[in-house]
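hi! just following up on the protien thing from before. the input was this:
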Amino acid sequence: MRRSSQSLRLLRSLLEKEREKRFPDKLLRGLVEVKNFITAIVVASLLVGSVAAQKKYQRPTVQTPDTFRGIDSTSPTGQASIGDLKWFEVFQDEALQKLVRTAMDQNYDLRLAVARINQARANVGLARSNQFPQFNVGADITTTRESASAFPIPGFTGLSTTFGEAFLNLLTFEVDLWGRLRQQTKAARAQLLSSEEDRRTVATVVVSDVATSYFNLIELDMELEIANRTLSVRQESLRLISARQQGGLATMLDVRQAEQLVYEASQVIPDTERLIEQTENQISLFLGDYPGPITRGASLVQQKELPAVPAGLPSSLLERRPDIRSAEQLLVAQNALVSAAKRAYFPTISLTGTFGYESNSLSNLFSGPNKFWNFVPQITQPIFTAGRLKSNVNFQRAQREYALAFYQQTIQTAFSDVSNALVQYRRVREIRTQQELLVDALIDASRLAHLRYEGGVDTLLNALVVDTSLFTSELSLAQTRRNELLSIVQLYKALGGGWQ
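and the predicted 3d structure came back as:
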């Protein structure tokens, strides 16, 4: 029994020495075969990739109008556009510029858009990593104890066995022979570009929202100034009429009518102050700050106007508006996903290689006879998937059709926005001109009506009616001036400006 055990050990030792001698030659031949196989796969992949690369994305044909509807015939024409100007070149109020800069740094919508960009950028890295080999290292140690009762052999007290393994995954790689992974990476990059354009769209909205709220605020300031001034004038008129009534030159009806005008002006003041505080709170929200007072710059009548409002060429709107560019990148992404879905019909080629050591004794784990390696090229061809691949292609095609319709709708909306803003700007300017003439006429009429009343040739009623009309017209003129500024804001936003 002892001699047979010694013979077995000797035979095992000889076999291990022989295997150790032949292992390097086998490994060398295996590596050469692996190299030749990989070279052939790479060459074929490059050839197929060059053929697939010939099919490039082409922008859908879009018929743009020759000119924007609503443009003023006196406005300058050409390639220049107000949308090409930077926002601080359009809005020259220093206080407004400070507010916009703060909003660009602290606005939560912009911060959310930046977070979405970071997500899309990380997604590109995930998609791109699938195109490259993966390497990892692993090791494990297993120790088992056999019970003596499991083997009822006389004199057997149990057996402890330790098995260790250390390995290196040299290669885990899917050969992108048909370009499926490249198309998925292309789609992820297009989605990243779409996210960046979305951030520019949000920046455009933030600039326009801050400017709109600021012009609303200074218009309310002007309304409050008009109300306070009107209230002071009417209180003085009430004092004079009360004195005339005490002297027998006026009636109590005159006093009550004068009081009515005082109360009408006084009730406007707290309502206007309410709107001012709420508008300040709204601007604070745009700034990413808690509600508080807002610093003003130039008054409503002191705001600088642009000498002209050129709209530019309609065709350039496709390149200037970030929402249009974002919609186009989504179309590019869906086009790539359709291509990737089609290429899922082709075989999948994957390569796996492992090298390491394994032994039942830790003392000789890394010795020569304990080496092992393997290389497994694998080809998988879908045969029957119960319509899954076809349904995925149809789904991605439907997504592409949706992206195309959304792209075309975004373009139509953009031209509608520009046309509406141009009409608004032109018509509001005409309204403002006529409103200024009306206010001038009512100021003179109010002066003449009070002179006639004080001279005893007319009743107080006519003077009060003119005063009421003047107060209302002054408030309307302030709102019209604000609307003129807001029309520039809307036109600048519609033309794609404000994100530079």
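The mean pLDDT is 80.
Strands lie at 136-146, 159-175, 348-359, 371-380.
cheers
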